[in-house]
């Protein structure tokens, strides 16, 4: 995967965790916060850790945020997110993602030009609910406004059948992206349609918000 330059603006619990994980995954991270304590905590883990008011155009420009492929606004204050967004648009950043705690702010941010809005607590609630009610669903990630990625284990009725026989796309409106057999460390994206599904195989698939319930219901039976 090509290394990206990703700027994380706001280094609270969410922002710090995001910045650290991105850096561990090999991405070049620019981390900015007003509080020096948060900046110092990340200084040894990211490419650039900067103390400053990230809602200011001059601060963002000097920190090199204009060269970022993606910027994540992780501010806890809505007004500050708006000011930061305006500064980023002036820098012509190609992709802007914003975090908010309030669902009603989501439409506002999208209308103002944010490419994707994250509601961490709401998203985590959905994922945890699916985990509690359906042991086969390992993860459910909202990729954008229309699509979700699902990680799940093989249902008993699929064991012994081939990928082609199960026909995930037609039966469950799911595009199968990768598969990992028990004992393997990595997922395989080159999926053989004649592969015979085994117990405890793990799959990753892509579906849309309207169709996701099809695969969830199938796994719950």
Automatic annotation (TrEMBL):
Signal peptide per UniProt: 1-19
Entry keywords, A to Z: Ion transport, NAD, Potassium, Potassium transport, Signal, Transport
Superkingdom of origin: Bacteria
Alphabetized InterPro entries for the sequence: K_uptake_TrkA (IPR006036), NAD(P)-bd_dom_sf (IPR036291), RCK_C (IPR006037), RCK_C_sf (IPR036721), RCK_N (IPR003148), Trk_Ktr_HKT_K-transport (IPR050721)
Cellular component GO terms, alphabetical: plasma membrane
Annotated ranges, domain RCK N-terminal: 3-118
Alphabetical list of SUPFAM superfamilies matching this protein: NAD(P)-binding Rossmann-fold domains (SSF51735), TrkA C-terminal domain-like (SSF116726)
Single GO MF descriptor: potassium ion transmembrane transporter activity
UniProt protein name: Trk system potassium uptake protein TrkA
Species for this entry: Facklamia languida CCUG 37842
């Amino acid at each position: 995967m090509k290394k990206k330059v990703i700027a994380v603006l706001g280094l609270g619990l969410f922002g710090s965790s995001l910045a650290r994980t991105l850096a561990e995954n090999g991405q070049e991270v620019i981390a900015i916060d007003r509080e020096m304590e948060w900046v110092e905590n990340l200084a040894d883990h990211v490419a650039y850790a900067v103390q400053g008011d990230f809602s200011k155009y001059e601060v963002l420009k000097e920190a090199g945020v204009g060269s970022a492929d993606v910027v994540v606004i992780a501010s806890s204050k809505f007004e500050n997110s708006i000011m930061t967004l305006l500064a980023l648009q002036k820098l012509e950043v190609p992709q802007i993602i914003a975090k908010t705690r309030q669902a009603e702010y989501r439409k506002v941010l999208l209308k103002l030009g944010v490419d994707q809005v994250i509601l961490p607590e709401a998203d985590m609630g959905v994922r945890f609910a699916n985990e509690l009610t359906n042991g086969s669903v390992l993860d459910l990630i909202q990729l954008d406004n229309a699509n979700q990625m699902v990680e799940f284990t093989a249902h008993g009725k699929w064991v012994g059948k081939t990928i082609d026989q199960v026909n995930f796309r037609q039966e469950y409106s799911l595009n199968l992206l990768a598969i990992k057999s028990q004992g393997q460390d990595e997922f395989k994206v080159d999926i053989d349609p004649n592969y015979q599904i085994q117990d405890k195989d793990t799959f990753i698939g892509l579906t849309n918000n309207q169709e996701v319930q099809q695969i969830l219901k199938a796994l719950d039976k």
